[in-house]
Amino acid sequence: MKVLYFDCSSGISGNMTLGALSELIDDPHYLVNELKKLNVDGYHIHISKEKKNGITGTYVDVHLEHEHHHDHKHEHVHHHHHEHRNLFDVNKIIDESEIDEKAKDLAKRIFLRVAKAESKVHNESLENVHFHEVGAIDSIVDIIGTAILLCKINPDVIYSSVVNDGYGFIECAHGMISVPVPATSEIFAASNAITRQIDVDTELVTPTGAAIIAEIASEFTAMPAMNVQKVGWGAGTKDLVIPNVLKVSLGEIKKKTKL
């Protein structure tokens, strides 16, 4: 059995997942080429190696191109475009792309988890939720990119560690909110995920990361007995007391033969 094991001891985010999974496939251009099948522009992806507490991981950064425009009219148009996408718009982007059907399906399921949580947090119907998070191009790229890479790796089963988040408060569009942030809490509450807080004063789990791991992991447990063949390291954006990396191990579990 081909197994992926996610070690979320320093949390999980969309770009950490992209970084780790991209290290597990041999083609460095695969992700960028597949994402060209999405009919979305206004961004480019920057992939680099970053060191976190001495550990080298892949850092995937989604640059939004409108940030570089100084023309206000331009700025407004682009900004407006990014801010107001709902689930229908996101699903339309996925459906109209030429990516693998399995990847489309997985991406839509991950988005639905975020949408349901945002709908509950903001007390709005599913149709009316305008994602700050999800509507942004970077979440679209993170989630669809993750689905593309997972379908390429094609594991039989995915396990995860207990998911660690931090504590304290972070700044968001609505002001200061506590960690775990509400959408992350609601995503986990609607799943079989096992989570906890550790002594790190910041957010470690983004709603995108929460939705990804809640959707794909069938069990949250210590790593089972497996023969690890390859390890992918995804770097996060933060410098913490612990290494801000997501470690994803790819390996085999021998199927027990029935006597």
Which keywords apply here?
37% helix, five-stranded mixed β-sheet, 259 residues, two-stranded antiparallel sheet, globular, alpha/beta, 11 strands, 24% strand
- C-alpha-based Rg, rounded: 18 Å
The helix fraction, in percent, is: 25-40%
Main-sheet strand order equals 9-4-1-11-10
Shape: globular
Unreliable stretches, pLDDT < 50, 5 or more residues?
68-82
Structural class: alpha/beta
Main beta sheet, described?
Answer: 5 strands, mixed
N-C termini distance: 18 Å
Number of helices: 8
Beta-strand content: 15-25%
What would you call the quaternary organization?
Answer: single chain
Instruction: Give the rounded overall mean pLDDT.
Output: 90
Order of helices and strands: EHHEEHHHHEEEEHEHEEE
The total count of strands amounts to 11
Short description:
The chain is an alpha/beta fold. It has 8 helices and 11 strands.
Task: Describe it.
Helix 5 crosses helix 6 (137-153). The relative contact order is 0.26. The two termini are 18 Å apart. 37% of the residues lie in helices and 24% in strands. A 5-stranded mixed beta sheet has the order 9-4-1-11-10. Strands 2-3 form a two-stranded antiparallel ribbon. Strands 5-8 form a two-stranded parallel ribbon. It has helices at residues 14-24, 30-35, 72-83, 87-96, 101-122, 137-153, 182-189, 207-216; strands spanning 2-7, 43-52, 55-64, 157-160, 163-165, 169-172, 175-178, 195-197, 219-220, 227-235, 245-252. With 259 residues, it is α/β, with parallel strands linked by helices. The protein is globular and about 55 Å long. The protein contains 8 helices and 11 strands.
